[in-house]
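User: Working on a comparison across species. This one is NAD(P)/FAD-dependent oxidoreductase from Microbacterium yannicii. Can you predict its structure so I can line it up against the others?
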Amino acid sequence: MTRVEVAIIGAGFAGIGMAMALRRAGREDFVVLERAASVGGTWRDNTYPGVACDVPSHLYGFAAYPNPSWSGTYAKGAEIHAYLQHVVDAEDLGDRLRLRTPMRWAQWDAEHEVWRIGIGASGASSWPAAPGADGRHTGSADGGSADGLPGEDVLLADVLVLACGRLTEPTIPRVAGLETFPGPMFHSARWDHSAELAGARVAVVGTGASAVQIVPELARTASHVTLFQRTPAWIVPRDGSEYSDADRAGFTADPASLEALRAELYAEGEARFASRAGDSDAAAEAEAVARAHLERQVRDPELRAALTPDYAFGCKRVLLSDDFYPAVASDAVSLVTTALSSVEGSTLVAADGSRHEADALVLATGFASTRQPYAELITGEAGTTLAQHWSGGMTAYASTVVAGFPGLFVLNGPNASLGHSSSVLMIEEQAGYVARVLDARGGRVLRVDPAAEQAYTDEIARAAASTRWMTGGCRNWYVDERSGRLTLLWPGTVDAFRARLARADGSEFLPEPAPLTR
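Assistant: Here's the predicted structure for NAD(P)/FAD-dependent oxidoreductase from Microbacterium yannicii:
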């Protein structure tokens, strides 16, 4: 068995950011486990037509690695994947990175005060697809043992960092007869590039962030696109532009200009929080922009009404697009304003009873966000899985550490995402917090005080109560339906998160028991 101080699970932005923070803190005894064949996380997995970030490129990157070569205001998916590969090379993380090495389970060994992590056999590429999937190994009493299963190795770690992401496991809708569809059918995050969609009748289920990028691309080449919309989204202009060679050369020659641009984009993002947080004036102004955008691009009043949300601006994720509305308004796309109800071979039946023929089916139906699949695999101090601890919704002190799970840190997990700016900013703050905590621990086992976690959870609930995510009259993927709590987003600005983590003084951890005396 190999033992390390820190095991990091995942090599997307969070895992790479954590590795960088450890290295800057002088900690070299760590390993990064990645189930796939390359780094990149979301930006490795999502390769659908038109995939791009909806956060300005010069804000969507590590502060230590500004990229003067971004192609435009909003980076394309392949660019971001390449950027992360570049950072790994620049940080010389190759010898710390173990690709094609999934975490199968992780158990806290109380006797030896260490995490035992079952890792897949060589060549394995993924952990189980989702909770309840065939072959899931939870690491509980009926799953595996501390010595692993045949074909598995066991890694020992003093500290376990889950950097697994929140948009990793696609959600497949439960639709009667879905398995009878005879043509190509796949989730947007598992795009089948071998499927011949040019000249085909393509159906898309969903109108979220991925769909608004996919539909315009398909409309250009498919014979027809049928779009199933359960709920319309608020969409604002993207207003992006491509950077010229001169722009990129200027960024390279003058790093200060790049730093100033990042600061400007940061300030714009922080200001944007008001329209999501319950500020009625800011929300009304932003909604007016979205309504004007829709009116300019969709002339048909009936179609425009079908594309107008009936919930408050900001309640769901606000989308950016300049070409989605024109595509939907064109003859190339038919909008179905109800959910997909059933499938009868190549016939798709909507909830309103309408029937639609399709040759291919794209499921742009989102991800398991509030119920993270990795939580089933983690067993803590009392034999409780992280999924059980989170049965009423994800919780963590400082959005990072969890009671009952010694030496466990979660990045980009409970209340650590943003609805108004770059998630990379939050990841960097969390990674910095982890590094500070490890510097101060002095070799002791870090056990979170349950009272501290509860107090932080209550603090989040109070801050979230007046936000549009809670009061806007919609069903969103930020709120856990089991508890009705906002569990995915941080209900504040990045500045506020930074200040909150800075106030963490170590009192969130229980003191170690005094040694026994004779």
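For your comparison, note: Residues 122-145, 514-518 have pLDDT under 50 and may be disordered.

User: Helpful, thanks.
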